[in-house]
Structures are given as C-alpha cells and as structure tokens.
Description:
The chain is of the alpha/beta class. It has a single domain, classed as Alpha-Beta Barrel (TIM Barrel), CATH 3.20.20.100. It is 40% helix and 14% strand. It has helices at residues 3-28, 39-46, 90-102, 118-127, 158-172, 191-203, 217-226, 247-254, 296-313, 317-328, 341-348, 359-368, 379-382, and strands spanning 61-64, 67-70, 74-75, 107-109, 135-140, 142-144, 151-154, 177-183, 207-213, 231-235, 257-261, 332-334. The strands form three sheets. Strands 3-4-5-8-9-10-11-12 form an eight-stranded parallel β-sheet, with helices on one face. A two-stranded antiparallel ribbon has the order 1-2. Strands 6-7 form a two-stranded antiparallel sheet. α1 (3-28) packs across α11 and α4 crosses α5 (158-172). It is globular. The termini are far apart. It holds the Pfam family Aldo_ket_red.
Amino acid sequence: MSNSNNSRRRFLLGSAGLAATPLVAGLAGCTSSGQTTSAASASTAAAGGNTTSTAVTLAARRRLGSLEVSSLGLGCQTMAGTLYGPVSSREDMITIIRTAVDQGVTFFDAAEVYGPLEVERILGEALQGVRDQVVIGTKFGFEVNQQTGERGGLNSRPDHIKQAVDGMLQRLRTDHIDLLYQHRVDPAVPIEDVAGAVKELITAGKVRHWGLSEPGVQTIRRAHAVQPLTAIQNEYNLLWRGPEQQVLPLCEELGIGFVCWAPLSYGFTTGAINPYTRFAEGDFRAMVPRHSRENMPANMAVVQLLNDWGVRKGATPAQLSLAWLHAQKPWIVPIPTATRTSHLLENLGAEEVTFEGNELQEFTTALNAIKIRGERLPAAVLAGTGVEAPMP
Length: 392
Ligand SMILES: NC(=O)c1ccc[n+]([C@@H]2O[C@H](COP(=O)([O-])OP(=O)(O)OC[C@H]3O[C@@H](n4cnc5c(N)ncnc54)[C@H](OP(=O)(O)O)[C@@H]3O)[C@@H](O)[C@H]2O)c1
C-alpha cells in the first residue's frame, strides 16, 4: 500500500473511531452480560448499521512466555485520578475499560498501590462478565492498609504477599490473577523466598503467571530458576532505552516476555506535553526530570522526529511510538494508559503502522543521534529500580 493510501486509510480509521466513540462506549457499557460485543458490531451500530469497515479493532496477539495477550494492553494506573490529576469520572473509566475489551484489548494492568486499591476495584467492576476473555496483571510489593489504602514501605515477605493476593482477588472480583508481578525488589527479602511464595499461590490456583518490575538482572535469573517468569515489566520508550543493554537480551535468552510501562513516556511522545505545559499540583509528571523546563526543549527533538515520520507514514506520534516498540521484538507488549476514549482508539491504530524496508533502521539511527536530557524518574523512585535481592 502506498504511503498516501496508508495515510488516508488511517485518517478514516481514526476519524471514524473518534466519531463513533460515545456510542461505542455506550454499547461497550452493556457488555457485562458476559458477551463481548465485537468491534465490528459495535461500530456498525454506532454508525447506524451501515458500515463495518471503520472499526478500530486490535486483532494482533503476542506471547509473553506462554501467556497470550493483545499486542497492546491498557494501563490503568491513573484511573483513580490520584497520579496525573483528576479523571473525568469513575463511570467513564469503567466505560473506557469496557470499550477496550470491545475493541479487542485483552490485557489490563493494575497494582495494589494504584489508587491505592481503587484501580483494582475499578478494573474488577469493569471486567465482571468478561473476566474469562481477558488477562489481568497486577502487582504486590508495598505495605498497603487493606481498609484505608494507606501506603507504607516495601514488603515482599511471603506471608504479606499471600495476604495481599487475597485482597486483590476480592477487589478484582475473580478467583485468580493471570499475571502477578513483584513491584519493586525488596532489599530485605531474598528473591528465592518471593518466588517460593508465588509458586505456592500458583499451586493453589490463585495465580497463573508471574513477573518482576524493574529488578536487577541477577535477580531475574535467580527468580526464574525457582519459578519461571512470564514477563518483566520495565519502563521502555523512545526516551528511555535502558532495557536494550541487559534486560531485553536476558529476556530473549530465558524466553521471558517484556511489558513496557510508560510506553509513551508519560504522554511526551504523543506530542501532548511540550515546554509550555504546566502540570497541576501533585501531578507526578511535574517531578520527572525529563519534563523540567531546562531539559524539555532538548528532548522535543524526539517529538519533532515523530512529527516528521508521522507525515511520511500517515500516523500519529503516539501510534509511531508504539509501533517502534512493537518492531523491537515480537514478545514486547506496551501498556499505554488512556483515560480518554479518543486516546485509547488512537493508540489501537498503532497496529496498522509498520516500518518497511530499512525504515526501522533509518528511524532508529535518527533517534540515536538525539541526546536525551534528564533522568527518567525522580531520584527517590529511581533508587528503587535495578535492585538486586539479598541472597538467602
Ligand atoms: N511497573 C511499574 O513500575 C509501572 C510504573 C508506571 C506505570 N506502569 C503501568 O504502565 C502504564 C502506562 O504508563 P504511564 O501511564 O505512566 O505512561 P504512558 O502510558 O506512557 O502515558 C500515559 C499518558 O499519555 C496520555 N496519552 C495516551 N495516549 C495518548 C494519545 N494517543 N494522545 C495523547 N496523549 C495520550 C494519557 O492521557 P489520558 O490519560 O488523558 O488519556 C496519559 O496522560 C500505567 O497505567 C501502569 O499500568 C507501571
């Protein structure tokens, strides 16, 4: 297909998706009966029953170890309105999750600390009725008061993990967690003990697969030796490519999948954040050094690159960002957050974007030439990444 045809097709795809959004969302809100409305049928109804060709559906599937998921997941971290500022409403978040299911997304990402607790509750409510059709990933690792949600420090002691999982199952309204991650390495607990606890949870049928988030590389090997890992969930995007050095080669060696958090660099690589952006008080993104007034102008070169290629490929910067991650390895799955349906539908269009011939090399060479300024996380948060667990 020529580039201009590609552009036109994606423009139609995107505009139809946006036009259909409220109705598609409304229809998706009716899927709790246990039937997933197919994307085509939702789109057909939304368009008055006269078209099926404009649906924004995600058909592609990828494997994380032995776990099959949609090629894009939906990150739900900010849906409680506590991290990136308020969201429109709880009901809207439930509708977006159901719309994602309706449009072919089968992979949803939460954590006990998101909210805290509330994101798991939202996800549980939204997915009730379609539970068997989706893969739920969630995470333990911190002290969280199960009544108040008050958050304490790291805690991956085996007894604590088991208690945390019982709370998760209640909030998620399910009898099993498909993918349970440790969400940060606890420097006080050997990873062998953590893996042993997860193994018992798997034997009990409460957990199906497990993973680690931002661990040290030796910790990955040690954990995998006790209970094989399904996925590593680390930050990976056009501004932070650290996993390429050691973690991705290790995942390839061990047959572990890779889930990218912040695949859009918190929204930066969509073009939605620029040096004139002002974050509300308490918005986490304001604390990210890459977003500082000093660093952001230099980093805008990445957005410029995406804009240039967007014109050439007929894609949005967000779609190109996700397509580039997809192009790295077939076992990489990005999980962008969207608390607006329009963002969700736009992101699903990434599946249509492919790099042909030497385009991937050309794009990456241009990306390599951009010097990214500023750390990826505030110092206190960064200190919790890449940590090696103590020996037993
Ligand atoms: N394991 C970990 O340590 C860890 C850490 C952080 C996050 N995570 C997981 O990763 C997920 C994603 O990470 P993230 O939310 O930090 O970063 P992200 O997905 O890179 O960026 C999310 C931001 O981008 C915006 N956005 C999404 N699509 C867009 C589009 N097409 N155009 C314009 N803006 C768009 C979203 O806006 P709207 O919300 O307004 O749609 C939101 O503000 C989280 O939900 C969470 O599940 C895991």
